[in-house]
Amino acid sequence: MRNTIQSKTTAGSFVAGFGYLWRGLSLITKPGVKRFVVAPLVINIGIFLFLFWLAGSYFTDLLTYLQSFLPDGLQWLSNILWIFFALLAGLFMFFTFSFFSNLVGAPFNGYLAAAVEKQLTGHAPPGSGRTVLQDIVVTTLNELKKWGYYLLWAIPLFIVSIFLPPLAPIIWFVFGAWLFSVEYLDYPMGNRGLTFTNIRRAVATQRTLTLGYGSAVTIATLIPLVNFIVMPIAVAAATAMCVDRFADKQE
């Protein structure tokens, strides 16, 4: 009987974590929150438009040069090459937009998390009174610790995947879900003054909940177009989860 109740509780916790991503979607449209979503998105789109314009300019020059060697009957090949270029540019955007979103959005995510928390509770996070310089130092140290932590686990998991290839997709999906949980919960918890080590420990206290949340984020990053805005949604969702489930986890 106890095992049945525990199983239902675990499943319910996973589903609850999974559902926070939907809640995050509703939160990013709230007043005082939207600007921290729109600003990095506009910057990101601007970067891609510039990159596409630059690549297109070089590609046009390349085609002009190549056309000088083509006979009149093969000039139509330039249209085929333009289609190939457009497809290649689309694939580049699809596979790299999330990376650039995290890179560009990182300085905004702490402020986004603080704005969402203020929207939910009516007041700023307990540890959000740091100066900009302190924010930069804390964020940089946390990012370095996160990369060290990722590599610490990624290397042995890669080795395991080589010897157990059928389990590799499951291993990396679970690992990715866990990393997304730690990555995005870092922003609201960091606003509360927690270090990366303490954040990791706090997340581990509700592993099933956070794996449910991380699984939703992982799946969302694989959906075209949705992956363009998944980062702010994930930050807002992580903040709501932090307020609901981790409010007492302070340094």
Question: What labels describe this entry?
Answer:
mainly alpha, 0% strand, 251 residues, 8 helices, disordered N terminus
Class of secondary structure makeup: mainly alpha
Query: What is the string of helix and strand elements?
Result: HHHHHHHH
Poorly predicted sequence stretches spanning 5 or more consecutive residues: 1-8
Nearest-angstrom radius of gyration? 22 Å
Write the layout of secondary structure elements.
Elements: H1 2-27, H2 34-67, H3 77-121, H4 132-163, H5 168-191, H6 196-204, H7 207-221, H8 226-245
Helix pairs in contact: 1-7, 1-8, 2-3, 3-5, 3-8, 4-5, 5-6, 5-7, 5-8, 7-8
How would you portray this structure in words?
The structure is a single chain. This protein has 251 residues and is mostly helical. Helices cover 82% and strands 0% of the residues. The protein is built from 8 helices and no strands. It has helices at 2-27, 34-67, 77-121, 132-163, 168-191, 196-204, 207-221, 226-245. α3 (77-121) packs parallel to α8 (226-245) and α7 (207-221) packs antiparallel against α8. The longest helix has 45 residues, at 77-121. The two termini are 37 Å apart. Residues 1-8 have low confidence and may be disordered.
